[in-house]
Amino acid sequence: MKEIKSRDNQKIKDAARLKDHKYRHREQMFLIEGRNLFCEAVKGQQELQRVFVEREEAEQYLDEFRKTRDVEWIKIDHNLMKYICDTQTPQGIVAVDRIPQWNLHETIRKSGLVLFLDRIADPGNMGTILRIAWAFGVQGVMLSSGCVDPFSPKVVRASMGAVFHVPVFYDISAEELVSYQAEGYRILASSLNTDLSINEVDFTGSVIIIVGSEARGVSAKILSVCDQSFKIPIITPVDSLNAGVACGIIVYEAGKQRGSNSGHS
Q: What per-residue confidence (pLDDT) applies to 75?
């Protein structure tokens, strides 16, 4: 394991720049911070490019080091770890990973349950929704423009490893949604402006479920191409549910209808 001591080292600077959205997407790389996420990445056979570990922590990771012989491991001090990481109190390990590439047309051809997120801006909500999608076997998550980057450090942490497993597709437009209707998908939107309750909706077959941000809901343009909209009945006069919570309820109901709560047909 080599050691780097200077903040001016190019490998240190490149890793720290991955906190920036534009740089992440130009390089198609992102950061994995902390022991649990790192171990999930190793287990999930991610394309790790480089691992930085605090000198004092290095011995704890000898097993992972042996499992990833083709990956460059670098020992650094606590100050360099803080410089690279997004968290205030880093856990002693951070890795640079390649952003997974998924095939949208292949995903759509599987004819199952897909989520479409419209302008979800909160990293915690995005991470929660990706984790829900992973837990219930959702086959893919589409994002409208205006969504938070699913590979930002905060979303990656909140997803607890879901970003390694759930196919995510960016900047999907209303026009593209219409093209999926032509392929046999029904488009169902969660909305407060409807009398139809979630338990009256058929979630079987090829379905795209649309969830909007709690601040703005689903946009009028996206709603205009939907086959049906529905609401989650709320007993007390709460304005709206957190988008992550709402998504969990919807995907659970869809999973029940589709059998074994797997989210598959």
A: 97
Three-state DSSP class for residue 14: helix
DSSP state of 165: T
| 26 CB neighbour count, 10 Å cutoff | 10
| Residue 147 near residue 176 (C-beta atoms within 8 A) | no
- Please report which confidence band the pLDDT of residue 238 belongs to, taking 50, 70 and 90 as the band edges: low
Whether 263 maps to a domain, the answer reads no
What is Dmax (Cα atoms) for the chain? 63
Closest among 194, 197, 200, 202 to 233, alpha carbons compared: 197
What is the domain count for the chain? 2
For the sheet with 168-169, list strands across it.
Answer: 168-169, 140-143, 113-118, 207-212, 186-190, 228-230
> Does residue 227 share a domain with residue 153?
yes
H or E, element range at 128: helix 123-135
pLDDT digits (tens, 9 = 90+) for 167-217: 999 999 999 999 999 999 999 999 988 999 999 999 999 999 999 987 888
| Alpha helix ranges (H) inside 1-122 | 10-17, 21-27, 35-43, 62-67, 78-84, 104-109
Distances (CA, A) of 100 to 8, 19, 44, 127: 29, 17, 11, 16
Full-model pTM: 0.91
Domain range for 59 is: 2-98
Burial of residue 32 (number of CB atoms within 10 Å: 0-12, 13-18, 19+): buried
Contact (Cβ atoms closer than 8 angstroms) between residue 96 and residue 71: no
Q: Which of 98, 131, 151 marks a domain boundary?
A: 98
